[in-house]
């Protein structure tokens, strides 16, 4: 069901991606620093895409005990690092530079022909760093997907199940949003439950229109970002820029 008008989340607007990066780098640094102080480590879950690029480059220069931070991908196309579409390659070129190069990057691509083949190995990697994440950076497509929770995708029910494993294999229905690389591996709704600072970053009028649609009535399977937007406990902060 849609959210009541009184409970609609605030959308924090920024002048541009640079301004958004400046506004968010401090709170992210503080959340990671607090996690390190509490238990000696921090987990930072991050997404690919052009929207957070300026933020990642800014964070790479931030003073932080990066050696105690595990950076984990929210989702990944089933391609090797260095191949077109790899989120891991994107992160190595943006976030994992400068001071942040000292952090541990936990990729989601494993051996095997399909994401299903790699689930066991990736689950072991994630168990070694611990969940939930202390900070999560999410994006959203104009189709209403976040992470690799694509509308009506094969594996979506597993990805959104309560109390499930930390990762799921997805085969999306090919669209202009997915492109040709429809086999994905993704953190699940269960993996993100109870996360610390959770941020949903959007850019452009198309994403704003998609957000408005996701906040309206309709099945979660049609716009899976609704699984988070309708959550009383795990709804992310929403930040938007043109």
Q: Would you kindly provide a written description of the structure presented here, covering whatever features stand out?
A:
By secondary structure, the chain is an alpha/beta fold. It has a single domain (10-241), classed as 3-Layer(aba) Sandwich (Rossmann fold), CATH 3.40.50.1360. The chain has helices at residues 17-39, 53-59, 87-94, 115-129, 156-160, 189-192, 205-214, 226-229, and strands at 11-14, 42-46, 69-73, 75-77, 104-106, 135-138, 167-171, 183-187, 197-203, 237-241. A seven-stranded parallel sheet has the order 1-10-9-6-2-3-5, with helices on both faces. A three-stranded antiparallel sheet has the order 4-8-7. Strand 2, helix 2 and strand 3 (69-73) form a beta-alpha-beta unit. The radius of gyration is 17 Å and the shape is globular. Its EC number is 3.1.1.31. Pathway: Carbohydrate degradation; pentose phosphate pathway; D-ribulose 5-phosphate from D-glucose 6-phosphate (oxidative stage): step 2/3. InterPro entries: 6-phosphogluconolactonase_DevB (IPR005900), 6PGL (IPR039104), Glc/Gal-6P_isomerase (IPR006148), NagB/RpiA_transferase-like (IPR037171).
Concise structural overview:
With 242 residues, the protein is an alpha/beta fold.
Beta-strand level of the residues, as a percent range?
15-25%
Count the domains: 1
Q: Could you spell the SSE succession in H and E letters?
A: EHEHEEHEHEHEEHEHHE
Q: Quickly give the CATH architecture.
A: 3-Layer(aba) Sandwich
Round the Cα radius of gyration to an integer and report it: 17 Å
